[in-house]
Amino acid sequence: MKRPPSILLFLAALFCLGTPMLFAQTGQAPTFTLPTPDGKTVSLDQYKGQIVLLDFWAILCPPCRAEIPGFIDITNKYKDKGVVVLGLSLDKEAGKLRRFVEENKINYPILMATKEVQMAYGNVQAIPTTFLLDRNHTIVKKHVGFTEQAVFEADLDELLRTQPPPGPTTPAAPTAGEPSTAPASEPTAPATPASPALEATASDPASPTGQP
C-alpha cells in the first residue's frame, strides 16, 4: 500500500531538518571518549571548564553542512574565551570523513559518534542537533535543525556573561604582620583588576543510524 505523501514528507523531515526547533533541556551531559577520523581519541572530560557546542551531524545532511562555516567562524572568534565546538559525526567511513574535514578546512575536533552516544543524548535521530554545555558540562540548550550562526553566538554571549573566561591569577596579599617579599627599594604597584572579556559579538535525508 502506498503511503500518503504527507507521511513521507514527515519522515524525511524527521531525519534531516532544515528549519530550527528549540527545546529546553537540562542535566549533566553524558561523558564519552570517541575516535577521530585519523585514529586518535578525544574525551569530553578533556574540555572540563570550557563551554562546549556539541554538534551531531553527517556529511550527507545539507543543513549540517550549511552550519559548518559558522562553527569554523565561532571557533576563531571564541577560542580565547574558553569555548570549543565538537562535531560528532554519524558517518562510519573514517577515510571519507577525514577527506571532508581537510577539504573544508574544519578547525575544530571532529569525532565519530557511536550509537551508544546517540542514545545517551536522548536517542538523537534528527540532524543537525546541537547541545550547548556550560563550563560544568551541564546541558543548557538544545537546537534541532539548521540554526543560524547568530543564534549560537547569542547563546554563547549570554552564557559568557554568567560564566566569563578565567582571568590571570593575582598573587595573594601578605597577611597582617607578614613582611612583604618585595625589595624595599622597589615598591610594588597595586594589583590591577582583570578587565572583563570582550564579547564577540534541501534536503538529502541523513540516516538516523549514522549511515549516509
UniProtKB/TrEMBL annotation:
Lineage: Bacteria, Candidatus Ozemobacteria, Candidatus Ozemobacterales, Candidatus Ozemobacteraceae, Candidatus Ozemobacter
Gene Ontology MF: a single term: antioxidant activity
Segments of skewed composition (Low complexity): 172-203
Pfam families found in the cross-reference section: AhpC-TSA
Keywords, sorted A to Z: Signal
Name recorded for this polypeptide: Thiol:disulfide interchange protein
Thioredoxin domain span: 23-161
PANTHER family according to UniProt: CHROMOSOME UNDETERMINED SCAFFOLD_47, WHOLE GENOME SHOTGUN SEQUENCE, THIOL:DISULFIDE INTERCHANGE PROTEIN DSBE
Keyword RNA-binding tagged: no
Signal sequence residues: 1-24
Top-level lineage group: Bacteria
Region Disordered: start-end pairs: 160-212
Entry keyword Ribosomal protein: no
